[in-house]
Specification:
By secondary structure, this protein is mostly beta strands. The chain has 2 domains: about 1-55; about 60-90, no CATH class. The chain contains no helices and 6 strands. The strands form 2 sheets. It has a 4-stranded antiparallel beta sheet with strand order 1-2-3-4, with no helix packed on it. A two-stranded parallel ribbon has the order 5-6. The mean pLDDT is about 85.
Length: about 90
């Protein structure tokens, strides 16, 4: 989602993680009251944010555009061929 299209109610808390494979920084925002994950900010792509679908008022009509960490997928999960696919983090 484009960062400027986002409207967050309240003031989330955050913590920073470092990617295991690439060392890229991630800011992970969550609700300070209940702990629900809200979104992830990718430092290498400041124009893009990853919104947790469960936080949306109406997620109908949304479809993932990429699949990540396929090398760790369970055998019973079949990749969707029409999406971008990555063995680890998205590039």
């Amino acid at each position: 989602m484009a960062r400027d299209a986002l409207d967050i109610k309240g003031t989330p808390k955050s913590y920073r993680t470092t990617g295991v494979e690439n060392g890229n920084l991630r800011d992970r925002l969550f609700c300070g009251d209940c702990g629900t994950p809200i979104l992830t900010v990718l430092h290498e792509r400041p124009d893009l944010i990853i919104v947790k679908a469960g936080t949306l008022d109406d997620p109908t009509g949304l479809e993932p555009s990429a699949e990540v960490w396929l090398r760790r997928a369970q055998d019973w999960i079949a990749p969707a061929e029409h999406r971008a696919q990555f063995d680890g983090d998205a590039k």
